[in-house]
Write a structure and sequence with these properties.
Blueprint (H helix, E strand, L loop, with lengths): L7 H50 L2 H4 L2 H21 L4 H27 L5 H25 L6 H6 L1 H18 L10 H15 L1
Length: 204
């Protein structure tokens, strides 16, 4: 069937699902490699602190300077506080992120397929898109609930921002689909209307 025969609302949702699904796939890939990025960042902070301490120990003028040591300790505590506030993530939260990222990566592939199907006028495609959106919403809500169940740093809030946007978008899409009659995706609808028109013409 031609894309021109698809209802405007269905075409819009389908295209948006393809775009959001594609962006979502890249987002999930980022979340999968995120623990490695976090490890590198933590190692950098640890190495910086260790190297600085070694240099202080090797420098008598610094090591024996109480004012410097006090200031350095204050700086080190501040650095640790910033690290905990912005970057620190509990190990079980990282596991949740990894698991749900893999699941959502698969869902995003199906999501793109569902969006593509909405560009073809078939009731089965409408239903497939609706089911896909419901599954995406449920998994997204569950992942957000579990990931935010612990003490979270600002990094988690920043990283999960797209998940919130995606959840809101999915809810909007499902509302749009639900508010329209699936019969608008009936590929035989036009033929049925033509038959009715012909029958009415004969009656006249």
């Amino acid at each position: 069937m031609s894309i021109k025969k698809v209802p405007g609302w269905g075409k819009t949702v389908g295209i948006l699902m393809i775009i959001m699904g594609s962006l979502g796939a890249f987002y999930q890939l980022y979340r999968i490699v995120f623990p490695m990025i976090l490890n590198v960042q933590q190692e950098f902070i640890g190495n910086f602190s260790r190297i600085t301490k070694d240099q202080i120990q090797n420098n008598d003028s610094l090591r024996l300077n109480p004012t410097f040591n006090e200031n350095f300790e204050s700086f080190e505590n501040s650095l640790e506080a910033v690290n905990n506030t912005i970057f620190k993530i509990e190990p079980h939260i990282i596991q949740y992120i990894m698991v749900f990222s893999l699941i959502m990566l698969l869902v995003n592939v199906i999501y793109i397929i569902a969006g593509t199907k909405l560009l073809t006028k078939k009731i089965a495609n409408y239903q497939f898109a609706k089911i896909t959106l419901i599954i995406a919403i449920l998994i997204n809500v569950l992942s957000l609930f579990l990931i935010f169940s612990g003490n979270n740093s600002l990094m988690i809030f920043a990283m999960m921002f797209y998940a919130f946007i995606g959840l809101i978008a999915d809810i909007v899409y499902i509302i749009i689909l639900q508010s329209h009659d699936q019969s608008e995706y009936d590929e035989n609808e036009n033929a049925q209307k033509q038959v009715i028109s012909i029958e009415e013409g004969f009656e006249i």
